[in-house]
Amino acid sequence: MNYYLGRGVPGSQLMMGFPLYGRGFKLQDPSKHAPYDPSNGPMDGCPYSEEPGFCGYNELCERIFGQSGWTDVHDGDMQAIYSYKGSNWIGWDDLNIVKLKLDYLKSIGVGGAMLWSIDTDDFRGLCGPKYAIANLIWSELNGAADSEGRE
User: Fold this and answer.
1) Taking the alpha carbons of 14, 20, 25, 30 in that order, is the dihedral positive or negative?
2) N or C: which end of the chain has fewer CB within 10 A?
3) Counting runs of H as helices and runs of E as strands, what totals does the chain give?
4) How confident is the model at residue 1 (pLDDT cuts 50, 70, 90)?
């Protein structure tokens, strides 16, 4: 965002993207799980998307949060979260990270936000309220939404 704003693109013409998925890898050494540690390629695909190295937020709620043994790490320097279990490592955005990004978006005055993609939000409410990320983005940018996602 700063790159474009610094080169004269009006903030009103910019949108910040919010991924509703995580990207995962197989660690070369399970004891080395920090960002940028070596990997052996993507982790196995999640049950619905089946794409190696990709898990929708809804799949994360089911696969990662629904199973024991996963460790979450909130990296304060990167303002990011990642989780690992054995040789599996995945980076993703939780509600706290989304809120930080929204605060940044509002502070620099860009035009808005977009999600990719709505079908991978937590539509079952396994991690909290249904469509928690979409509703958080909506309410932060437009005011409170009702239970159906409307203002």
Assistant:
1) positive
2) C
3) 4, 8
4) very high
CATH classification code of 21-92: 3.10.50.10
- Under a CB-based contact definition with an 8 Å cutoff, are residues 139 and 106 in contact? no
Which pTM was predicted?
A: 0.87
Q: How confident is the model at residue 123 (pLDDT cuts 50, 70, 90)?
A: very high
Task: Give the sign of the dihedral formed by CA 29, CA 37, CA 55, CA 97.
Answer: positive
What are the tens digits of pLDDT across the range 16-57?
999 999 999 999 999 999 999 999 999 999 889 899 999 999
- Parse the chain into domains and list their residue ranges: 2-16+95-142, 21-92
DSSP code at position 73: E
- How crowded is residue 59: how many other Cβ atoms within 10 Å of its Cβ? 22
Least Cα distance to 33 among 92, 83, 94 occurs for 83
Q: Which helix (H) or strand (E) holds 26?
A: strand 21-27
Integer-rounded Cα radius of gyration of the chain = 17
The total of other beta-carbon atoms located within 10 Å of residue 73's CB is 14
Tokens describing residue 133: 């990320």
Look up residue 150 and give its two tokens.
Answer: 């409307």
